[in-house]
């Protein structure tokens, strides 16, 4: 995949996705094709998952587990 989008456009797209804008709305506002928007979202999501996998280690999650449990 060619990386032709300017950084400013990428930031704008990811910001709009994070705010909950629809892909088609972002397409209309920015003029960026929806397939490109989806691809960028997937790439950023995978990068975030990698960061979480590396950084979120050895956490004591007992309190979180109790809240989610209905038993």
What do these coordinates show?
The termini are far apart. The radius of gyration is 17 Å and the shape is elongated. The model has no long low-confidence stretch (mean pLDDT 87). The protein has one domain. Helix 1 packs across helix 3. By secondary structure, the chain is mainly α. It has 4 helices and no strands. Helix content is 70%, strand content 0%.
The secondary-structure class comes to: mainly alpha
User: What is the ordering of alpha helices and beta strands?
Assistant: HHHH
- Give the termini separation: 48 Å
Rounded radius of gyration (Å): 17 Å
Strand residue percentage: under 5%
Helix content: over 70%
Mean pLDDT: 87
Task: Break the fold down into its secondary structure elements and pairings.
Blueprint: H1 7-19, H2 23-30, H3 34-55, H4 62-68
Helix pairs in contact: 1-3
Keyword list:
4 helices; 71 residues; mainly alpha
Task: Give a summary of the structure in a few sentences.
This protein has four helices and no strands. The chain is mainly α.
